[in-house]
Specification:
By secondary structure, the protein is mainly β. It folds into two domains: about 80 residues, Ubiquitin-activating enzyme E1, FCCH domain (Elongation Factor Tu (Ef-tu), domain 3, Beta Barrel), CATH 2.40.30.180; about 110 residues, Beta Barrel (Elongation Factor Tu (Ef-tu), domain 3). Helices cover about 5% and strands about 45% of the residues. It has one helix and 15 strands; from the N terminus they run E-E-E-E-E-E-E-E-E-E-E-E-H-E-E-E. Strands 1, 2, 3, 4, 5, 6, 7, 8, 9, 12, 13, 14 and 15 form a 13-stranded antiparallel β-sheet that branches. Strands 10-11 form a two-stranded antiparallel sheet. The longest helix is centred in the C-terminal third of the chain and has 12 residues.
């Protein structure tokens, strides 16, 4: 059986850096996921959008909230909202994407390594240890990089660490599959020595869920 493994060369990491231009929506298909129509939009899988100006009794379920984009076609895209039992109409609805800055000079990375907490359930009537599991923890993403002070993405990572601000992140693999999540830059270290380049490492603490698209 042939391997479906993909070469990691070309993998990118992006960090959120403000907002892009709003995409106007002309139709909504309720369900799960919710499908929005926006002719010739510029969104790609893994983008993060904030929705606004939708109407209907349940418009609060979409307005001012952020969603990860998936199932992109030329004129439609999906958001992770279960609107099956909701009343939402387009109105003058828009989806405003996060603007991304690519973090340059990445050598390697790894993570999404968290585990769920173990919840003890054993009592005096138990005949063996009983347990349950808690909420999913996606852990951290750790990166090895080559330090380049003029890289806008590395600068954004340092600022996020210094300001202790939550940012959105998107990993895109060469086959265009993505991993989108929020997180905090916990460290940004540097290393140097004789006959070597200046290298570094950084760790992002994942806050909440990772969305695969």
């Amino acid at each position: 059986m042939p391997s479906n493994a993909q070469n990691a060369q070309g993998t990118t990491l992006e960090i959120s850096s403000g907002s892009g231009g709003a995409e106007s929506c002309s139709a909504i298909a309720l369900g799960f996921p919710t499908i929005l129509t926006s002719n010739a939009h510029a969104l790609v899988n893994g983008d993060v959008v904030t929705c606004a100006a939708f109407e209907g009794a349940d418009a609060a379920s979409i307005n001012s909230l952020t969603f990860v984009v998936s199932n992109v076609t030329t004129n439609t895209f999906a958001i992770g909202l279960d609107s099956s039992a909701l009343t939402i109409t387009v109105g003058s609805g828009t989806a405003t994407p996060v603007a991304w800055t690519t973090v340059g000079e990445i050598v390697s990375g790894g993570g999404f390594d968290g585990t769920s907490a173990i919840i003890p359930k054993t009592n005096l009537a138990s005949t063996a240890v009983e347990k349950d599991i808690g909420l999913q923890d996606f852990g951290t993403l750790k990166l090895e990089i080559q330090i380049y002070d003029s890289d806008a993405g590395q600068t954004a990572m340092r600022l996020a660490k210094a300001n202790q601000t939550s940012k959105s992140f998107k990993v895109t693999y060469p086959d265009d599959t993505t991993r989108t999540f929020d997180g905090f830059v916990m460290s940004f270290s540097e290393s140097f020595g004789v006959d070597s380049i200046v290298t570094g490492s950084t760790e992002i603490l994942i806050d909440g869920e990772v969305t695969y698209a």
